[in-house]
Design goal:
This protein is an alpha+beta fold. It has 5 domains: about 1-50, no CATH class; about 55-165, 2-Layer Sandwich (Beta-Lactamase); about 220-320, PAS domain (Beta-Lactamase, 2-Layer Sandwich); about 325-400, Orthogonal Bundle (Helix Hairpins); about 405-550, Heat Shock Protein 90 (2-Layer Sandwich). About 50% of the residues lie in helices and about 25% in strands. A hairpin with a 5-residue loop joins strand 3 (about 70-75) and strand 4 (about 80). The longest helix is centred in the middle third of the chain and has 55 residues, at about 165-220. Bound molecules: adenosine-5'-diphosphate (ADP). Adenosine-5'-diphosphate binds near residues 453, 461, 505, 514 and 543.
Length: about 550
């Protein structure tokens, strides 16, 4: 029975509570939708009536739709009214927020601050950042804007709560970005500074290098110039101006015409233009006019300066005064000419007398004397060939290397020379590769002289491998005669110079006798036969000297 009574009372209590909840919901809904203008709140001091004096329907709806939380509290800090947004912010059902102290929705750490804000706000409007607890216990940074409002029942505090989460996040993001920006700025500045320092250093180096170049070019005894790939001259050193005595205006194009001897001009221009076209070294000996009208021989050399891509940026040229060397060389040539001529006469008599001695009653001569006569004859032959070479050089210089021409059978010539060489060099093997008969127009003795010179050199400069090969072949309308040895060979630079007068390779290990005249004479002879002479060689491996002559 007792049990039945308590169940009944519990049921009625639940019913009463449900009724109260429904009532609360209705009330809140009525407030939100503007159906009521006042409400009674049960507080410790008894029931209190709050009139929503200014909150007419339009404003309440407006507040309800705001994206900010809106709360009205009384002097005790109890929430009289809040909009749905606020309820969502604190993740609490609307009916459970109204009637609760506002402090309930802030974390302990912020309670003190909120109390102070609320306290001040009763006297004047306040705005302050306060942390709100959301339903999940997470902190939410909010801006509380507090204003007092006058209700029928007295003054209440209206608080607009703006969620600063997005703002804070953006601020934080901004801070990070700012920080990153600052770091990037610092890095850029550092880079900039280092770049500036590099540029400063480079500029300084450049100035030094330019001054260095200027100083150098102005102090050397050679004249120097620079020109563009198009041929236009861009600068000259002081020596150039001092020597030529010229003052140039902008017209740098006629410079060759102004300074080079008229007889050397055509060749100079031809080689210069050819170098500009091919990018090859420009080299020529020509006569330069001095300020006083005197011409002096100069050696001109110009080389191109290329960029990383291999294109020519500009050319740097020099002109070296070789007038004194030229005169010296001429004196030497003159002396050689006179000396060889003077030597020829006594040598011819010496040879004649030796022949007389050799022919004189042979039986009466002791064998040792016969030996001496043979040795003396060999030496005289050598001396004679040396004097002949010297005489040839003089003749070439004087333009008097003359000889009669007729048909020359090259195949016979080769056989004859090889025969000769075999006789003189019995330890050497001579191989001939002859495929046909070839006839050229020329001088038999002079061509023999050339071929013998090439064969003798092949023997002289191949002390190790004693095989010399002679190849005769037709190339277009020409015959090509090649003499190949496997001797000491020549470097690229040396092959360039060996056809010059008196040039000999300075090789202490392979020093042989000679005066460096043979190839010079050979070249002249072959050129006079409208042919050409050349060499293919590799140092340490051997050489092939060849000449090419037009066939009849
Ligand atoms: P010479 O032999 O009297 O010195 P040449 O005019 O015949 O004079 O030769 C000039 C230079 O060329 C020689 O001193 C030598 O250094 C080089 N030379 C000539 N022929 C050969 C060769 N077959 N192999 C290597 N070097 C050679």
């Amino acid at each position: 029975m007792e049990q039945q009574n308590s169940d009944t009372s519990l049921l009625s209590e639940i019913e009463e509570l449900r009724y109260q909840l429904e009532e609360a919901r209705d009330t809140i809904n009525a407030i939100r939708t503007g159906q009521v203008d006042a409400l009674i709140v049960k507080a410790d001091a008894g029931h209190q009536l709050y009139t929503l004096k200014t909150a007419d329907q339009t404003y309440r709806v407006f507040i309800e739709k705001m994206s900010e939380g809106a709360v009205t509290i009384n002097r005790e800090g109890i929430i009289l009214y809040c909009n749905t947004r606020f309820a969502n912010m604190v993740d609490t059902p609307l009916e459970k927020t109204i009637g609760q102290p506002l402090l309930f929705f802030v974390p302990d750490t912020s309670k003190n601050k909120l109390e102070k804000v609320i306290y001040s706000s009763w006297n004047e409007d306040c705005r302050e950042e306060i942390i709100l607890k959301d339903g999940g216990g997470k902190d939410m940074h909010c801006l509380f804007s507090c204003n007092t409002i006058e209700l029928d029942s007295g003054i209440a505090l209206s608080i607009i709560i703006t969620d600063l989460t997005v703002l804070k996040n953006t601020e934080q993001e901004l801070q990070i970005r700012n920080y990153q920006l600052e770091e990037a700025q610092a890095a850029t500045e550092k880079l900039n500074n280092s770049l500036e320092a590099t540029v400063r250093q480079r500029t300084h180096d450049l100035v030094i290098s330019r001054e260095h170049f200027k100083l150098l070019t102005n102090n050397i005894v050679q004249m120097t110039w620079t020109n563009l790939p198009t041929g236009e001259f861009t600068s000259y050193n002081q020596r150039w101006y001092d020597y030529t005595g010229l003052i140039l205006d902008d017209d740098h194009d006629v410079v060759w015409e102004m300074v080079v001897h008229p007889d050397d001009l055509e060749k100079t221009l031809r080689l210069y233009n050819n170098s500009l076209k091919t990018g090859e070294l420009f080299e020529i000996e020509n006569r330069y006019k001095r300020y006083d009208g005197v011409y002096r021989w100069h050696l001109n050399r110009s080389k191109p300066l290329r960029n990383d891509g291999g294109d020519i940026i500009f050319w740097v040229g020099t002109a070296t005064d070789i007038e004194d060397q030229k005169q010296e060389m001429e004196r030497k040539d003159e002396f050689i000419g006179i000396a060889s001529h003077e030597l020829k006469t006594p040598l011819t008599s010496l040879k004649g007398y030796l022949q007389l001695i050799a022919g004189y009653n042979k039986e009466e001569l002791p064998p040792i004397v016969k030996q001496y006569i043979t040795k003396a004859s060999v030496s005289i032959s050598k001396l004679q060939s040396l004097i002949n070479d010297l005489l040839d050089v003089s003749k070439i210089k004087a333009g008097r290397l003359e000889y009669a021409v007729g048909n020359v059978n090259i195949s016979d010539l080769v056989n004859l020379c090889v025969e000769n060489a075999r006789h003189v060099n019995p330890t050497y093997t001579f191989i001939t590769k002859l495929d046909d008969e070839y006839i050229v127009n020329g001088n038999q003795e002079r061509l023999e002289q050339v071929l013998m010179n090439l064969i003798n050199n092949a023997v002289k400069y191949s002390p190790g491998n004693k095989t010399v090969t002679l190849t005769i072949q037709q190339v277009d309308d020409n015959v090509r005669v090649g003499v190949t040895d496997s001797g000491i060979g020549l470097s690229y630079d040396q092959t360039d110079k060996i056809f010059e007068r008196f040039y000999r390779v300075e090789d202490k290990q392979n020093m042989t006798s000679g005066l460096g005249m043979g190839l010079y004479i050979s070249k002249e002879i072959i050129n006079n036969h409208n042919g050409c002479i050349g060499v293919e060689s590799e140092i340490g491996k051997g050489s092939t000297f060849y000449f090419v002559l037009p066939l009849i």
